[in-house]
Design goal:
Blueprint (H helix, E strand, L loop, with lengths): L1 H7 L4 H8 L17 E4 L6 H12 L6 E4 L4 H9 L5 E5 H9 L9 E16 L3 E4 L5 E4 L11 E4 L3 H12 L4 E4 L3 H9 L5 E6 L13 E2 L13 E5 L9 E13 L4 H16 L1 H6 L22
Parallel strand pairs: 1-2, 1-3, 7-8, 7-9
Antiparallel strand pairs: 3-12, 4-9, 4-10, 4-12, 5-6, 11-12
């Protein structure tokens, strides 16, 4: 953990948060007019967070009082939760740790995990590399063919992926330049116009938008010893991009809330928590549920539990 703290202190998180806070949400928030109506920050309407939120709603009648609020992802979700604009938020655990250990924000200590969820994989995209040969017959590869090629390059990221990019860059010693963009569309526009050399996105696979991509490669991400305190090994499977699996790393996500004490709200949250845990088999086996439920066991809590 000491190595984690040393790595995280190298990162200029505040700037990333300031840039991301201006992102537009993808859904209009629903005012919590009564104790029984709570807003939940998810992410993109085509993302894993939104899908899993809807899945719980199918099996738990307790979700009737929850209203989804779209966002740009984990970084914005934490701010929405801390600023009392939502009551629950889907977030990456590495972004929570970074907010606590980099920004030293005391409010983060009041955040609790209502549910530990799936692991989210780091997706690193690059354009196909080009191999050239000089007059002496020597070859040179241009672009990003392997992870080490990121050194000195520009990597686009948005939302919580901004923090992951900085953490991974510091922990691996590559210290590539992280370029903040508004969203996935902006990131790939920058990649295809060669304003950046790669795109880094943290999302639970299979991500709908990744399955529509073409003309890009997935670059393998190795798990260094320093990264093992936060990340775990994983593999990506996208036949539209690669015929074989691609090694990468993953970070666990959580459905977080504040440490509410009022009896009415506490009762609602604990009932929702209890229902989701009791319906895990349904979430894993019912047709139409997101495949990431196979990765959930509700046993590993990467953040203090709401009780």
């Amino acid at each position: 953990m000491r190595s984690l703290i040393l790595a995280l202190t190298l990162l200029p998180l505040g700037a990333a948060q300031a840039q991301t806070s201006t992102a537009q949400t993808s859904a209009t928030p629903t005012p919590a007019t009564t104790t029984g109506t709570l807003n939940v920050a998810t992410g993109s309407p085509t993302g894993t967070y939104s899908a899993m939120f809807k899945n719980i709603g199918r099996v738990c009648t307790q979700s009737a009082y929850l209203r989804e609020r779209g966002s740009s992802g984990s970084l914005e979700n934490i701010d929405l939760l801390l600023n009392n604009e939502v009551s629950l938020a889907f977030v990456q655990s590495d972004v929570l740790k970074a907010r606590q250990q980099i920004d030293k924000d005391p409010r983060v200590d009041g955040i609790k995990a209502l549910l530990p969820l799936h692991r989210e994989e780091l997706h690193l995209f690059a354009l196909p590399s080009v191999v050239s040969r000089n007059i002496l017959g020597q070859t040179k590869t241009q672009g990003v063919a392997k992870f080490e090629d990121l050194k000195g390059k520009k990597v686009a990221a948005w939302g919580g992926s901004l923090i992951t990019a900085r953490v991974v860059g510091a922990m691996t010693g590559l210290n590539f330049e992280v370029v903040s963009v508004k969203d996935q569309e902006s990131a790939f526009a920058a990649l295809r116009s060669r304003q950046v050399d790669a795109v880094l996105a943290v999302v639970g696979q299979p991500a709908t938008w990744v399955k529509t991509l073409s003309g890009v490669n997935l670059v393998a991400v190795p798990l260094s010893d320093r990264m093992k305190s936060i990340y775990s090994p994983a593999k990506l499977f996208y036949p539209n991009i690669s015929a074989a699996s691609v090694p990468t790393v993953a970070v666990q996500s959580v459905l977080a809330t504040r440490d509410f004490k009022t009896p009415e709200r506490k009762k609602l949250l604990l009932a929702y928590q209890k229902c989701a845990v009791s319906k895990l088999v349904n979430l894993q086996e019912d047709e139409g549920m997101h495949p990431k439920w196979q990765d959930v066991d509700f046993k590993t809590w990467p953040w203090p539990q709401y009780k």
